Amino acid sequence: MVEPVSVDLLVHAEFVYPVDAAMNVIPDGEVAIKDGAILYCGRRKPEGHWQTGRVVGGSGFAALPGFVNCHSHTASVIFRSQTDDHVAKTALLDVAFRLEKDITEEEWGLCAMLGTAEMIRAGITTINDIWYAPERLATLVAQSGLRAQLAYKVFDVKLENLRDGDYSHYPDIGERRLADGIAFAQTWNGRAEGRITTRIGTHATDTCSQTLLQTARDEATRLGFGLHIHCAQSSAEVDEIRARHGCGPVTYLDRIGYLGDDTVLAHLVFATDDEFKLIAKANAPYAHASTIYPRRGRYPDLAKILKHGIRTGLATDWMLNDPFEAMRYALNGARMVAGSPQALSCDDALYLQTMGAARVLGLENQIGSLEEAKYADLILVDIDQPHLQPYYGSSAALVYYARASDVKVSIVDGKIIMDNRNIPGLPADLGVDAIRDATPRWRSQLQRYGSRAVYGEGCTCW
Ligand SMILES: [Zn+2]
Question: How far is the CA of 125 from the centre of ligand 1 (A)?
Answer without folding.
Answer: 18
